[in-house]
Amino acid sequence: MKNLYKIVAVIGLSVMATSCFDKSSPNYQFFPNMYEAVPYETYSEHKVFKGDVEAQLPPAGTVKRGFVPFDIPNTTDGYNLAKTTLKSPLDSLSQNTEKAKELYTIYCAICHGDKGDGKGNLVKREKFLGVPNYKDRDITAGSIYFVETYGLNAMGSHANQLSQEERWQIADYVLKLRSEL
């Protein structure tokens, strides 16, 4: 008999607990800021740090880790300076022709063609016109690196996609392709 009372009590409590549940309205949130965070813009004005900004700006003159600044300006004079003075810092052990070919195929061949003749897939489909043939240009490793870093005419910069070493490898590979044309 005692077991029957216990079973009835458990069933009664479960019916009472589930009868108050309403799916159309949510339950009470104990810590609402954990579920619905207050959004802040990165450099907006808030009383978090001194100066009433959310995040601190880096001090003037700082350079992010792993980045080496390119001191030649993005001008025509800068291009001519790079063309005459910049030399590849890669030695024979650092040059990897297979990797350079792979990078060239990914980033350059779509416009410049696999052979550097200016007949890539986008040129064949007439998406871009006037892509130069490497044998028609007076280029050096420095000028190629400059154009990869800053871009020129319709070509955009590849500095965000490629590291400095990868850009120098591509520059050496472009000179190899130019010698084969």
What descriptive keywords fit this protein?
181 residues; mainly alpha; Cytochrome Bc1 Complex, Chain D, domain 2; 8 helices
Please indicate the percent range of residues in DSSP E strands (runs of 2 or more).
Answer: under 5%
Oligomer: single chain
The largest sheet is: none
Examine the coordinates and then state which fold CATH places here, giving the name of the CATH topology of the domain at 76-180: Cytochrome Bc1 Complex, Chain D, domain 2
Number of helices: 8
Average pLDDT, all residues: 81
Instruction: Give the CATH superfamily of the domain at 76-180.
Output: Cytochrome c-like domain
Q: What proportion of the residues is helical, as a percent range?
A: 40-55%
**CATH architecture term of the domain at 76-180:** Orthogonal Bundle
Number of strands: 0
Q: What's the CATH class of the domain at 76-180, please?
A: Mainly Alpha
First and last CA, distance? 101 Å
Helix/strand-derived category reads: mainly alpha
Instruction: Return the string of H and E elements.
Output: HHHHHHHH
Question: Any low-confidence stretches, pLDDT <50, length ≥5?
Answer: none
Any idea what the shape is? elongated
Radius of gyration: 32 Å
